[in-house]
Design brief:
single chain, 3 helices, six-stranded mixed β-sheet, about 30% strand, about 120 residues, alpha+beta
Length: about 120
């Protein structure tokens, strides 16, 4: 899975807007689908169930994304516990300025923040 520059920029913007909470959602072949994080604890996310189901049914997601506001762009034990087979996982780290892409929790790509 490869990301375009606009996707990387959009993911950083979504992460910044959600901070200090995590942002979350899906990426389909042609769009980013933000989903409301209903967990109000920093460092955790849980997608709003109805929006999550609708996105999975109607947008054919290829990846799940979420942010780490003050942690590195590596999966936490909680991240590893809640996975959906067949999807890529993206972690947007505001502290690292990285978007890391994982397949079966193996790093397959890394994208830095665009220098302004």
């Amino acid at each position: 899975m490869e990301l375009t520059r606009w996707q990387v920029d959009a993911l950083f913007l979504l992460a910044e807007e959600a901070a200090p909470l995590e942002c979350c959602g899906f990426i389909s072949r042609d769009t980013i689908i933000p989903i409301v994080n209903v967990n109000d604890e920093p460092g955790l996310f849980r997608m709003e169930p109805t929006a999550q189901l609708q996105a999975m049914l109607y947008h054919e997601p290829i990846a799940v994304y979420h942010s780490h506001v003050s942690d590195h762009a590596v999966p936490s034990p909680m991240d590893r516990r809640y996975t959906v087979d067949g999807l890529f996982y993206l972690i947007v780290s505001l502290s690292d300025d990285l978007v890391n892409v994982f397949s079966d929790w193996q790093l397959i790509g890394s994208y830095g923040r665009h220098a302004s």
